[in-house]
Amino acid sequence: MRVRTSKSSAxxxxxxxxxxxxLLVTGCSSTKDKKEGPTGSSGKELTATDRLTEAKKVLxxxxxxxxxxxxxxxxxxxxxxxxxxxxxxxxxAFKGTLNVQAGSLAASVPVTSVDGKTWAKMPFSAKTTTxxxxxxxxPDPNVLFSxxxxxxxxxxxxxxxxxxxKLRDGKDIVQEITGSLPGSAIKAVxxxxxxxxxxxxKYGLTDDNQVRSAQVIGPFFKGSDKTRYDLTFTxxxxxxxxxxx
Length: 245
What we know:
The chain has one domain: outer membrane lipoprotein receptor (LolB), chain A. 23% of the residues lie in helices and 38% in strands. The protein contains five helices and eleven strands, in the order H-H-E-E-E-E-E-E-H-H-E-E-H-E-E-E. A hairpin with a 2-residue loop joins strand 4 and strand 5. It is an alpha+beta fold.
């Protein structure tokens, strides 16, 4: 038996086929053109080096943040910082605690840095006095958090920067970036090492280029190239009142 097809029915079927094909092509095009990472003002996807340059701008531009430093495999006979934590504002100014080691002596020292000076309450002292942190093998917070000489300057100095995997940081996903830094940069900023050698680095950046973490491994101390320092940056945008004691 022969089935007759009306002209309007045939046109309707043809239209449906064309529409489906159009949707299929559009879907494929959207998938192909979708960017896999953040883009710059030009719309071009940012490279690892671009991301680190943007991360410096973000860190320098925030009113404040919380900072933490943790050392691993610090030689027991060395003099230097073991760990530290505190709040930073854009003056720059810092208020927190540094855990330092001088030979066999280790101590937790409350520190305030503002207006180019640093105050600390040293062990066995009843008073808070001005100090030079470099004397104790610790970085000066007035330099460490400055825009032109501080930790943010390490980001764009990173050599051979490469995008790695992505990891979860609380509610955010961070992009891992690896590379290396020259010993001269580490010495200038962290006041550790002898200014030579190469340090491996690994950063974690959010999609809006907030650097959340930085891991640095290398010859911070003579005779050891495995010492590691982990830096974390949280609470972007916070402001706290930091004044001289």
